[in-house]
Amino acid sequence: MKKLIPLLLLLSTLHATELRLTDTQANQIAHKIWLNEGSGKRSKLVWWNKGEEFASVGIGHFIWFTAEKPMGFWEAFPPMLRYIAAHGARPPRWLTPKTHCVWHGYEQWHRAKKANSRKMRELTTFMDRTKGLQARFMLHRLNTSFPRILTYAKAHKQGRIVEKNYHRLLYRKNGSIDPQGAYILIDYINFKGDGINKGERYQGKGWGLYQVLTRMNPQDPNPYHAFVMAGKVVLERLTHIAPPKRRLSRFRKGWFNRMDTYWR
Hints:
Strand 2 and strand 3 form a beta hairpin. The protein is built from 11 helices and 3 strands. It is globular. The protein has helices at 4-16, 23-38, 77-86, 106-115, 118-129, 131-155, 159-170, 179-192, 209-215, 223-241, 252-260; strands at 46-47, 54-57, 62-65. The protein has one domain. It has a 3-stranded antiparallel β-sheet with strand order 1-2-3. By secondary structure, it is mainly alpha-helical. The N and C termini lie far apart (39 Å).
């Protein structure tokens, strides 16, 4: 019983505290995410994938909607901008968290990109010089999202498995932070969302962090591998249930390559 008490205290401490990373750890994870999102290239800090309805901005390619085409997906750019501005970043005068995407579609963005317009230059420079704060925002997103994920999981009788797999990834046996596990969790929630947003559903099925955590194989001794295998199942399903016009199968190879960075 004496040996059990310290373990229980450790677990209760882990559950009660936020994930904390040093600036070096946060920046290392952010760099990996930026390699995933934009190959680490400055030119891709303000991007628009052809065939998509939104721009992708910053090292996390945070979604930014036009006024004409809001979607059910979580729009990450405004809260990211609000967070980094609150922590000292000074955006261009024309840009606030309430500003809709200044390009109304892929073609207009493409022309601005080719012409290297003033707003394109200013936004690219701003995103380039605030990479560290963007990294902190991604950590903040995980810390604020996981309690909501856990509440949702408990309501659907999945709380124990979600909490177990989350801590299995995030903490080593001695209770210290596992940097690779932190990368996996921060990257995936940035990449595919928390999984509990009802707007991020096709045919009633989600593809976010919640869905992956509930599908991890408890018999797999490697939590990284278990997460990757579960994630690939969820993403494969997404390519089949999404509306055909979105043509998500074209992203499958890139998604799977990204997942492979989690355990190789």
